[in-house]
Design a protein that fits this description.
Elements lengths: L1 H18 L8 E5 L5 H9 L4 E4 L2 H11 L4 E4 L17 E5 L2 H14 L3 E7 L13 H13 L3 E8 L7 H20 L6 E3 L6 H6 L4 E4 L1 H4 L12
Parallel strand pairs: 1-2, 1-8, 2-3, 3-4, 4-5, 5-6, 6-7
The structure holds pyridoxal-5'-phosphate.
Length: 233
């Protein structure tokens, strides 16, 4: 099933890219493997998937212990400062930095390890209270300035989650807001490569609006099963 699903996802990525005059290879597919057991991740690896996303620090730490840097890891979930040690230096990208305090903690840990940590800043573009992320431009600039001067941080781009809705217009507004935020920072001299946006329900719209990283779980692995832990499946 994963094989067929991946085929469909790759096709749709290519179509969305083409529709907006982009090349499919400008877009990195991150397979969101949260809740999935190791054997499922290994199946995806055998089918050519190179990038995986996890959103829980402990689950990530434990999976990393098993799979190590056999794959490129993306940490995409809310990160508490006391769990930074589980993630820094292991995840290639941390997508969810949304405060100076968290950035500071990641920088300190990365300095200790002697690594440069690639990060993205997470913006709340939906206005939804339940979502994390930076909520206004002033705050974004403050965090971006901090990151620029932090010796062990490498600011790579911005990340967002669209609102949970079937209204395509609202979803698109979110992605446009992220793209504009990137353009504003670039106008202020920041250089950013990535827009991490688009999940199972909206990745085609995200690609049309400039996504360079899409984070897709359900469309690849099927509905998530929360009845058992990943290591009990
Ligand atoms: C779970 C998750 C995804 C993937 O969601 P799907 O709808 O299953 O594709 C993407 N991004 C983040 C931050 C997630 O937590």
């Amino acid at each position: 099933m994963i094989k067929e699903n991946l085929h469909i996802v790759h096709e749709k990525i290519a179509q969305a890219a083409e529709k907006s005059g982009r090349k499919p290879d400008e877009i990195t597919l991150v397979a969101v493997s949260k809740t999935e057991p190791i054997r499922v991740i290994e199946e995806a690896i055998s089918l050519g998937v190179t990038d995986f996303g996890e959103n829980k620090a402990q689950e990530f730490r434990d999976k990393y212990e098993i799979l190590d840097d056999k794959v490129t890891w993306h940490f995409i979930g809310h990160l508490q400062t006391n769990k930074v040690k589980y993630v820094v230096g292991k995840a290639e990208f941390i997508h969810s930095v949304d405060s100076v305090k968290l950035a500071e903690e990641i920088n300190d840990r990365a300095e200790k390890l002697g690594v440069k940590q690639k990060i993205l800043l997470e913006l709340n573009t939906s206005g939804e209270e339940s979502k994390f992320g930076i909520r206004n431009e002033e705050e974004l600039l403050k965090i971006a300035e901090f990151v620029k001067d932090a010796p062990a941080l490498d600011l790579q781009g911005l990340m967002t989650m669209a609102p949970f809705t079937s209204d395509g217009k609202l979803i698109r507004n979110s992605f446009v807001a992220l793209r504009k935020a990137k353009e504003n920072l670039e106008a202020k001299g920041f250089s950013l490569q990535h827009l991490s946006m688009g999940m199972t329900n909206d990745y085609e719209i995200a690609i049309e609006e400039g996504a360079t990283i899409v984070r897709i779980g359900t469309a690849i692995f099927g509905e998530r099963d929360y009845s058992k832990k990943w290591n009990e499946k």
